[in-house]
Amino acid sequence: MWDVASAWLDEQCHVCAQDSNQRNTGPPAAECGVRELNHLATGPAPGIGMPGLTSLIGIQEKGHITAGSNQTMVVSGAAGACGSLAGQIGHIMGCSRVVGICGTHEKCLFLTSELGFDAAINYKKENVAEQLRELCPAGVDVYFDNVGGDISDTVISQMNQSSHIILCGQISQYNKDVPYPPPLPPAVEAIRKERNITRERFLVLNYKDKFESGILQLSQWFKEGKLKIKETMINGLENMGAAFQSMMTGGNTGKQIVCISEETSL
Ligand SMILES: NC(=O)c1ccc[n+]([C@@H]2O[C@H](COP(=O)([O-])OP(=O)(O)OC[C@H]3O[C@@H](n4cnc5c(N)ncnc54)[C@H](OP(=O)(O)O)[C@@H]3O)[C@@H](O)[C@H]2O)c1
């Protein structure tokens, strides 16, 4: 009997899978992409899974954080699922300063008072360039980029020599007809090249061999109280579309979850 099943599936009404006693009809679980994750039974489930792995592996693979070297990290989309975890992981891994950029005053407060970010910028109300100069006086060494566009152009312009962009996502560009990753404006690309700033494509699904150890690490940090998880819940599969739209326009703090049933056999 499984405690927790985790799968990378599309939006759908039901999944056919067998448990280890082959009690359910349908194709074998592995063919559906379902696998057993017993060690997660007592750990945090949805909010930490894919966003946690994306943040952790993205930082490990592309962030080049060296504990004790006084690095400053900036996170855009900082109050969302990936961003809220990325900033906390940046601190855990040794950044001395973590600054978040997000879209409301309440989200800024959440980052600084609950998640331990050193500062936060409301990009809808504040001048991001001015605030960054004030809040990152030693420049930016690691940029966890969830949004792209003007915000990222502004951050990149204040990045240090041989610093690193973790190209997690470019949500501000998804409705535009541009290639991925979207090219930077020429002046910003010139800065990037001149300062030797890395900006490599990153896709978490290319690192499946690191998922098991990643989930164990994240669960451990969570149990130790080092990692806090926030979820925004909406009820009912019929509200999936509304939840997606809300997430795309900033309605969520932390991971947007659609709750299909509160029944659980755990
Ligand atoms: N590389 C990978 O393998 C991988 C895996 C998962 C996700 N991602 C990417 O990671 C990013 C975050 O995904 P998530 O699932 O964690 O979503 P999320 O951050 O929980 O939700 C999206 C957030 O983006 C912000 N946003 C929306 N439009 C924006 C705009 N035009 N400019 C600035 N901010 C905007 C909104 O917050 P505000 O209120 O702050 O505006 C919104 O809450 C996305 O770009 C996604 O595609 C990449």
Automatic annotation (TrEMBL):
<dbReference type="InterPro" id="IPR045010">
    <property type="entry name" value="MDR_fam"/>
</dbReference>
<feature type="domain" description="Alcohol dehydrogenase-like C-terminal">
    <location>
        <begin position="83"/>
        <end position="184"/>
    </location>
</feature>
<dbReference type="InterPro" id="IPR013149">
    <property type="entry name" value="ADH-like_C"/>
</dbReference>
<dbReference type="Pfam" id="PF00107">
    <property type="entry name" value="ADH_zinc_N"/>
</dbReference>
<dbReference type="InterPro" id="IPR011032">
    <property type="entry name" value="GroES-like_sf"/>
</dbReference>
<dbReference type="InterPro" id="IPR036291">
    <property type="entry name" value="NAD(P)-bd_dom_sf"/>
</dbReference>
<protein>
    <recommendedName>
        <fullName>15-oxoprostaglandin 13-reductase</fullName>
        <ecNumber>1.3.1.48</ecNumber>
    </recommendedName>
</protein>
<keyword id="KW-0521">NADP</keyword>
<dbReference type="GO" id="GO:0047522">
    <property type="term" value="F:15-oxoprostaglandin 13-reductase [NAD(P)+] activity"/>
</dbReference>
<keyword id="KW-0560">Oxidoreductase</keyword>
